[in-house]
UniProtKB/TrEMBL annotation:
Gene for this chain: LOC110197877
A Pfam match: Actin
Organism: Phascolarctos cinereus (Koala)
Residues forming coiled coils: none
InterPro entries: Actin, ATPase_NBD
Entry similarity comment: Belongs to the actin family.
Protein name per Swiss-Prot or TrEMBL: Actin-like
Length: 267
């Protein structure tokens, strides 16, 4: 089993949400069954969706969680966000030059899927990139957003009815991260694009009352950087703007060893 964790720089925040989520170990027999077969693993993240095979050391597919909306006769001027008209969208890293020229939408916000139709297109693209027919393999889905009961039900519906997967396990991300390190007890810190997740694990089960989710992630640093430079709020659905801030952040930003000391960067 491999572990997918997207790390971004982050900072502490005074607001947090307690996290309550089903435990992977509560249905351990199903989990073991999935791991014994040629199981597909899909991790859903605010910035990227990753996928590969259980037992691998790293994901084979990494798809940005962004879509470009194409015009159509039924919808000549598509806009980001859910619509009564099913829009045509482009997904995938190989389509990014075209997507940049279209109205773009990041379909996962703070761990919540905001456009299920577009999310289905992303999953279909992932299965195509893996040269895989999902109905032939068990599927393990991970991601912090899966703690929402409605989200879990919707994913089960789509995977079973649309992609016809033979069996499905929705894993607890923190527990799976620790299992991937060969441990059953420890503390998991996951800093993602939209959320920061801190979870204590004891004996293979997450302690829900001690688990925190901060609505703060790498995108907040990018947004703060943009506002400091341009003196206005960033449009987080504007792909080119968001990509430019991410690139700038990774090249010039750093974590100070002395947080109380103000450091000036001379360019």
């Amino acid at each position: 089993m491999f572990l997918f964790v997207t790390l971004h720089s982050s900072r502490s925040h005074s607001f947090y949400l307690p996290l309550k989520t089903p435990s992977s170990s509560l249905i351990g027999s199903t989990f073991i069954l999935l791991m014994e077969q040629s199981c597909l693993v899909v991790d859903i993240g605010s910035a990227y969706c990753k996928a590969g095979w259980a037992g691998g050391n790293y994901p084979l597919v990494r798809v940005p969680s962004v879509v470009g909306h194409l015009p159509s006769p039924q919808n000549p001027n598509p806009r980001p966000g859910p619509s009564l008209i099913r829009t045509r969208v482009l997904v995938g890293s190989n389509k990014l030059p075209i997507i940049k020229e279209l109205p773009t939408e990041f379909i996962i916000n703070r761990g919540t899927i905001t456009n299920w139709d577009a999310m289905e297109f992303v999953w279909r693209h992932i299965f195509t990139e893996l040269n895989n027919t999902p109905k032939d393999h068990p599927l393990l889905v991970t991601g912090l957003l899966l703690n929402d009961e409605h989200c879990r039900q919707k994913i089960t519906e789509v995977m079973m009815e649309t992609f016809n997967v033979p069996s499905l396990h929705i894993g607890n991300q923190a527990e799976l991260a620790l299992f991937g390190s060969g441990l059953l007890t420890g503390m998991v810190l996951d800093c993602g694009a939209g959320l920061t997740h801190i979870a204590p694990i004891f004996g293979g089960q997450m302690i829900s009352n001690g688990t925190l989710v901060y609505n703060l992630g790498g995108i907040d640093i990018s947004s703060l950087l943009y506002k400091s430079l341009i003196n206005r709020d960033a449009d987080l659905n504007h792909f080119i703007m968001r990509e430019a801030m991410e690139d700038l952040k990774e090249k010039i930003c750093y974590v100070s060893k002395n947080p109380d000391q103000r450091n000036l960067l001379v360019m």
